[in-house]
Amino acid sequence: MTAPLDLDGPAAPPRSNGELVFAEPWESRAFGMAVTLHDADVFTWPQFRSALVARIAAWEAAATGGESWNYYVHWLGALEDVLAGRDPRFADEVTARARTLAQRPAGHDHGH
Known about the structure:
By secondary structure, the protein is mainly α. The chain has helices at residues 25-39, 45-62, 71-86, 88-102; strands at residues 15-16, 19-20. It starts with 14 loop residues before the first strand and ends in a 10-residue tail after the last helix.
């Protein structure tokens, strides 16, 4: 992995004893997608980091105390923002694909 992850501050991913922490499988997948696309030179890490910090700041500014915090929701949103910024048509594709994936039943990919 070549992505220079922050160790401190708002863009730093959750860690426990120095190891990355993922509460759900989708979080590790979102993480992996961002790092893989960065490694493939689809975007720069500063672009992604800026989008992530902006997402977190917007959530903090709008938070009323009732919303639950999830770092990887913002991570995924930042990834969508960076990719959509490359081609405005991509935002519609991301939204359509997300809706399709969200409609699949829980455990759809675990038939055993």
